[in-house]
Specification:
alpha/beta; TIM Barrel; 3-stranded antiparallel β-sheet; 9 helices
Length: 326
């Protein structure tokens, strides 16, 4: 069985330091390091007393407040998935390559390796997290409960969004992804659209595909659809994109502007962004802008704040600590 370490929550003394990863500018000195057997010698951030009577089975994310942060290229982090959860990210992203029938995770083919798979980095730990968050005991049980707990102890009904960016041939990869999710599907853990009743059932894990993912195959999953589409936000008026097949609409901010000498989003661009966001919201679809500036940091932070003012739902973040402070 995969052993998942506890994650440090935001209100513990020294937790800001322990939250900082190598990518985010530092490594916490007060955290206890745990190895994760699925990925092999990766370390997690732990704040735990060591006294069983002071611990809960759902301690993994205790005290962590969920936030509308999307962990961009999450697999680059020191501890994929767990780093994002430690900051309360409600969305994580993985780039997928189908190689010899196996789904590998990485940005480019040169970075791929057989230990880094969709299962080892995401599906295996997620499955055990859901088991931990839904314990059975002689005191209480979730086995017959109408509500199944998600990853966040602070908000058990919050669904975690898993964005899968298809880097290889979509029609070949998509059915393999569908099969990889069977264990979650069998336990009713996946957010599902029922085309027969035109109704959405939000569950602990919401899966979205992007990149080379074909909309036609997303639509073909009938009558129960549990993999959704990442709609191009700049084409949101297209009638093909609806809340029945799309959970998110994304586009590059660079598509509309250059960062040269730009310190702020001007009124014209703000109105354009706001118009796209409102059009997506009218369809019941949430929004995200990628390729936002990372430096200078004051431009990055101001851009994030401006996007939030325009109604954008997800902060697309490489630096999770910075995004969590907005």
């Amino acid at each position: 069985m995969v052993k998942i370490p506890l994650l440090s929550s935001g209100h513990f003394p020294g937790s800001a330091a322990s939250h900082a990863t190598a990518q985010d500018g530092g490594v916490g000195s007060s955290a206890v390091l745990f190895a994760r057997s699925t990925i092999g010698a990766l370390s997690g951030l732990v704040m735990q007393s060591g006294l069983p009577e002071l611990q809960y089975s759902t301690d993994l994310t205790r005290g962590i407040v969920p936030k509308n942060i999307h962990s961009h290229n999450d697999y680059w982090r020191q501890v994929p998935l767990l780093d994002a959860l430690s900051f309360g990210c409600k969305s994580v992203e993985a780039d997928l390559h189908l190689v010899n029938g196996e789904i590998l995770v990485g940005h480019k083919s040169v970075s791929l390796s057989s230990p880094r798979t969709l299962d080892s980095l995401y599906l295996d730990p997620l499955f055990e997290i859901f088991q931990m968050q839904n314990p059975s005991s002689n005191v209480a049980t979730n086995s017959t409960a109408a509500t199944v707990n998600g990853v966040f102890d602070y908000d058990p009904e919050q669904s975690l969004q898993l964005l899968l960016d298809y880097k290889t041939d979509g029609p070949t990869l998509h059915p393999v992804v569908i099969s990889a999710l069977d264990r979650f599907r069998s336990l009713d853990l996946l957010t599902t659209w029922n085309s027969a009743t035109s109704s959405l059932s939000t569950r602990p894990l919401t899966v979205i595909c992007t990149g080379n993912c074909p909309l036609s195959l997303v639509n073909a999953q009938q009558p129960l659809r549990d993999i959704f589409f990442d709609t191009p936000l700049h084409d949101i008026s297209n009638s093909s994109y609806t809340s029945a097949n799309s959970m998110m609409a994304s586009t590059s901010l660079k598509r509309f502007t250059s960062w040269t000498n730009m310190l702020d989003i001007d009124d014209v661009l703000f109105a354009k962004i706001q118009g796209m966001v409102q059009a997506a919201h009218a369809k019941g679809i949430r929004t995200r802008f990628w390729e936002t500036p990372n430096w200078p940091t004051f431009v990055r932070d101001n851009t994030w704040r401006t996007l939030l003012r325009a109604g954008v739902d997800w902060l697309n973040a490489d630096n999770l600590f910075a995004a969590s402070q907005i």
